[in-house]
Specification:
- Strands 3-2-1-4-5-6-10 form a 7-stranded parallel beta sheet, with helices on both faces. Strands 7-8-12 form a 3-stranded mixed beta sheet, covered by helices on one side. The protein has a two-stranded antiparallel sheet with strand order 9-11.
- With about 280 residues, it is an alpha/beta fold.
- It has 11 helices and 12 strands.
- β1, α1 and β2 form a beta-alpha-beta unit.
- It is globular, with a radius of gyration of 19 Å.
- α3 packs parallel to α4.
Length: about 280
Amino acid sequence: MFNAQQTTLVLGGTGRTGSLVARKLIERGLSARTASRHGADVRFDWDDPTTHARALDGVDRVYLVTPVLRITYADLVSGFLDRAAEAGVRHVTYLSTHGSEQAPPEVDIRAVELDLARRGAFTHSVLRPAWVMQNFADEHVPVMNGAITVPTRGGAEAFVDATDIAAVAVETLVDPDAHAGAQYTPAGPQSLTVGEVAAVIAEVSGGPVTHNDIDVDAWIGGAVAAGLVPGDYAVMLRWLTETISSGNGSRPNDDIEKVTGRPPTTFQEFARRNAAAWTR
């Protein structure tokens, strides 16, 4: 069994799920070490392997968040996992994404999953969450001029609260033996179109909100031109949005309740909790 006093390294420790995972681990009595390029307990840079050894010192478990806004990183992650094994890590929980198991093995997000599955030095769990609800309350897919602009062709998605993703991750890290080899798809309890999301936001904010179901090429081109994402990341934006527009978006399931013992957050609950994001 795992020693509950060991430390969990939380990559992306200042980010959307990582900060929540670290806080919840500490609340559960485990030591958590956040790692990021800025503002975390330790500095961690994927492109600087010298930062990896310090981050891994004394670590028993890892919450693995791969480099953001990049599509080529599997070799970097593999090298990090080699160092993790050498450092005595015994469990890794990997934050992947919905539908990654259907991606070709050479696509990096899937390649990392397959790399983990081949390793015998430590156990692992994989999380493949739906689109997070927080996208609509921050700069990812914001409400601008009364509209949410994102191409989905009316498709639906079981949007999930990042808090619920973190709660599932924490359970896998608190009791790795019980979740070794597990693959979870944290999802919300409702399949919603972005138009339906807009209606909920309109209700809590008191102002009109609509869905601008823009052409996908125009949307991607605008994001790249504005410098919001690098040019090579366009392929990922297309995959993420076309998963929904093709009718293959995530669907409600019982993974969150099965793992955490409580039902997932509804979008209405999330919107009421975050109403200030749309009323500033």
